[in-house]
Amino acid sequence: MTTRTFAAVIHKEEDLYVAECPEVGTVSQGTSIDEAIANLKEATELYLEEFPLPETERPLLTTFEATVNA
């Protein structure tokens, strides 16, 4: 059994937090950030049992700014 580190992108939709793992494509939700991440972890582990990922280097995760006319 191997432990791997994945990214979680979290945003709020009304009264729920939605968590997405961009490397795998799994998504889950919860009423708190901690619950959303815990649910995402479970969903990702279940997904990877059926569809294992090849061993690759971790992708670079960064942010950028964009000017938007509001």
From TrEMBL:
Top-rank taxon:
Bacteria
Which InterPro entries has this protein been placed in?
Answer: TA_system_antitoxin, TTHA1013/TTHA0281-like
Using the record for this protein, list the coiled-coil segments as residue ranges, or answer none.
Answer: none
Q: Which PANTHER family match?
A: ANTITOXIN HICB, UPF0150 PROTEIN SSL0259
User: What is the name listed in the Swiss-Prot or TrEMBL entry for this protein?
Assistant: Type II toxin-antitoxin system HicB family antitoxin
From which organism does this entry originate? Candidatus Abyssobacteria bacterium SURF_17
**What taxonomic lineage is listed for the species of origin?**
Bacteria, Pseudomonadati, Candidatus Hydrogenedentota, Candidatus Abyssobacteria
